[in-house]
Amino acid sequence: MRFALDEDREALRSTARALLTELCPASAVRAAWTGTPDNAAWNALADIGALAVLLPQSEDGLGLDETYLVPVLEEAGRAALPHPLVETALVAAPLGVTGLIVATDLGAAVPTAAGGEKVAAPTKAAVEGAAGAAVPSATFAEAFLLAAGRGLRLYEAQEVDVEPVETVDASRHCGRVRPRAGGRSVTDDPEAVAAAFDRGALGTAAELLGLSRAMLELTVGYAAERHQFGKPIGSFQAVKHHLANARLEIEFAAPAVLYAAYAIARGQTDASRAVSQAKWLAGSAAAVTGRAALQCHGAIGYTTEHDLHLYLKRSWALIRAWGGADFHADRVAASISL
Amino acid sequence: MDLNWSADQEALRLELRGWLEHNLADWRVEIGTELSGDTREGFAQQLLWEQRLYEAGWSAVSWPSAYGGRDGTLWDWLIFEEEYWRAGAPQRVTQNGIQILAPSVFEHGTQEQKDHLLTRIAAAEDLWCQGWSEPNAGSDLAGVSSRARRIDGGWVLDGQKTWTTRGAFCTHLFGLFRSDPDSERHRGLTYLLVPLDLDGITVRGFGRLDGDEGFAEVFFTEAFLPDGAVGTSVVLGEVDQGWRVAVSAASTERGLLRSPGRYQATVASLLELCSQRGADESMRRRVAAAWMRVDGYRLQTLQTVTALMDGRDLGSEASLAKIWWSELDIELHEIALDLLDPDAELEGPWSKGHQFSLAGPIYAGTNEVQRNIVAERVLGLPR
Ligand SMILES: Cc1cc2nc3c(=O)[nH]c(=O)nc-3n(C[C@H](O)[C@H](O)[C@H](O)COP(=O)(O)OP(=O)(O)OC[C@H]3O[C@@H](n4cnc5c(N)ncnc54)[C@H](O)[C@@H]3O)c2cc1C
User: Fold this and answer.
1) What is the DSSP letter of A122?
2) Per-residue pLDDT reduced to its tens digit, A253-310
3) Among B residues 75-94, those touching chain A with beta carbons less than 8 Å apart
4) Which of B98, B101, B133 maximizes ligand 1 atoms within 8 Å of its Cβ, making it the mutation to test the pocket?
5) Which of B303, B339, B133, B51 is nearest to B348 (CA)?
């Protein structure tokens, strides 16, 4: 028994962190609100193999598993990277789609049962919301992995129509996507689609953890600097307790996210449940942390001039992406025979 | 990263499971109706249980066998806890000795103190209660005013301790006393080991919220504590340095007092209750949420124990676990009461457990104080 991010995983994480700190600062996220995201961070991630963590070495991948990729995705979340790293590296790459920036819409193809586990069907809202839903990164993706019947097809950018839609987090670059023609089948296997969905939910949970950490750090820093009544606001107990609550939620979500990666990597029978637990706990952590962060910033946090909103709005989107709290609670309930 | 138990660990689990099944049944025949360990009769019943545990080497699995343990690791302890609570075994009335005093003895005791005290703790021969709180020193433990005056051959104790769990049934008390009369706050306190049958000590038991006589107050009036009154030196650590000893125990208490195994067992009972009573969609989601938090605690503990086995200290992060398990326990019991609905008011394991869960955010350092610690020492916010 040993449950820790060991040296090699830590090393990959800190490499990713260093390059994201340099190439995807808040100003880069802000710039992605008004233009296509700059690819500097994305290319650097590709250079360290982050897009190909799950690919075998024979295909120029790192030949590693999800427990290596998840810490990198946490860092992408921390930086609010405006690129579809989850979709590209975790959802599409294991299906053999490589070398392209991939947007995904698994929509109605998400099956009702996954991995041999007894799980609940996605709620009606989840299915309807996903079919023809706003697809993130749609305006700049190079390829689209879309639901088709019970399987998935891949389209290149010129094979689809994209109608951009406005979203609360404009750096999401969402659009409604309609295939015009062509495309190729990637899989017809419902289990492969279910597994792809689980990987997407796992990656999103990891990004939410990173976003929570970013918002908490930003707020701890601010609370030490901002003075009222002649003292730093961080010395007030009400502020302390908000932030302690955020730290608490993060503390108990993080191991669940890492465990879900482990369960997927090992093909364990509880993998889908572990993913739902991870997504639910990470979503809860992000919701609590986001509220605390905004409250403790006061009015400055309630502006688009301050950076907090970049992370906050991303977290709002991701909390409900790839299945929201009720969807995942229902899957867990079904798997523990409730 | 490897989340599998070894063959030895699996074997330990199975051996324990079998032992518990057989011995719990046997013990329950022996005692007749099982009572709460926070009543005098129930306490006596549970001492019979503790003796069984000790004789079979289960009372403190992670201790050296020289002191009655099994030379086990913290992993073995986690397995023990999972199986123990899963089997529906009673609360440990020896808990204060085994989980709060003993870790301090291991860390700060002399060889002679270890040799003399530890086996007797494991064997439930000496029954220890925790004498920290006083009427005017609760959260602010450094406000302790009970005095220990040094005289030839021992100490003279004066003052009062309170909220002493099971104090009326125990044989000994460990506690903090002000040994330097001119000192203030954390300085000048000595950690003393005190037999409760000394002249000048009066113990009065009284009812907790659930009505059991689980609390006591302990009065010291010119009580003479001879230097070797506990069979070895009565001072743990250095004279006037008791705060250090107490603080190390506080982190242990918060971090490992309540293992995930307890809540895994509670959530399993909750699932049973759900299937008896029926749960609608929103109730199912509440239960699933509680299940996820319990399992999150289990996973976080696996990380914590990995870190401890790597030689890291638990430190202030223990406060995170304390807040989590105590608030989770209330959540679990509130769900149960809502499932029971009008039957929630009936005396029974859920109503009793609910009342006890409400103490969780108060004892072992209140959750307000724990949140202060998380904010200041984990997050580094200004004091
Ligand atoms: C079931 C149970 C068993 C116990 N067993 C023992 C035992 O065996 N031995 C023993 O010594 N003690 C025991 N205690 C006592 C326990 O340690 C104290 O209750 C605890 O330390 C709190 O002290 P207090 O009750 O005096 O509350 P107070 O310290 O008076 O606190 C009252 C309220 O004020 C809040 N407060 C106080 N200071 C602050 C602060 N700085 N910031 C924010 N809020 C604050 C508290 O959080 C609390 O909500 C037990 C308590 C219970 C409930």
Assistant:
1) P
2) 999 999 999 999 999 999 999 999 999 999 999 999 999 999 999 999 999 999 999 9
3) 75
4) B133
5) B339
Closest alpha carbon to A33 in A293, A314, A290, A317: A314
Instruction: For residue B180, give the 3-state DSSP assignment.
Output: coil
- Specify the domain boundaries for CATH 1.20.140.10 within chain B: 258-378
Could you give the residue range(s) of every CATH 2.40.110.10 domain in chain B?
A: 128-241
Q: Which CATH class is domain B258-378?
A: mainly alpha
Say how far apart CA A217 and CA A222 lie, in whole Å.
9
Task: Tell whether domain B128-241 is in CATH 3.30.2310.20.
Answer: no
List the end-to-end C-alpha distance of chain A, in Å, as a whole number: 29
| Residue of the CA atom closest to atom 24 of ligand 1 | B138
Q: Please, what is the end-to-end C-alpha distance for chain B in angstroms? A: 37
Crossing angle (nearest 10°) for helices A308-320 and A271-297 = 150
- CATH code, B7-93: 1.10.540.10
Q: Give the pLDDT confidence of B73-131 residue by residue, as tens digits.
A: 999 999 999 999 999 999 999 999 999 999 999 999 999 999 999 999 999 999 999 99
Q: How far apart are CA B254 and CA B319, in angstroms?
A: 6
Those residues whose C-beta lies under 8 Å from the C-beta of residue B311, and which sit 6 or more positions away, are none
The contacts of residue B26 (CB under 8 Å, 6+ apart) are: none
Q: Please choose, from the candidates B323, B301, B327, the residue with its C-alpha nearest in 3D space to the C-alpha of residue B314.
A: B301
Q: What are the backbone dihedrals phi and psi of residue A143, each rounded to the nearest 5 degrees, phi first? A: -150, 155
- Chain A neighbors of B271, CB-CB under 8 A: 336-338
pTM, full prediction: 0.96
Question: Percent of chain B at pLDDT above 70?
Answer: 98
Domains and CATH numbers, chain A: 191-335 (1.20.140.10)
- Residue located nearest, by CA, to atom 26 of ligand 1: B138
CATH 1.10.540.10 maps onto chain B at 7-93
From the candidates B184, B253, B347, B368, give the one annotated as an active-site residue.
Answer: B253
Q: Which residue in chain B has the smallest CA separation from A220?
A: B381
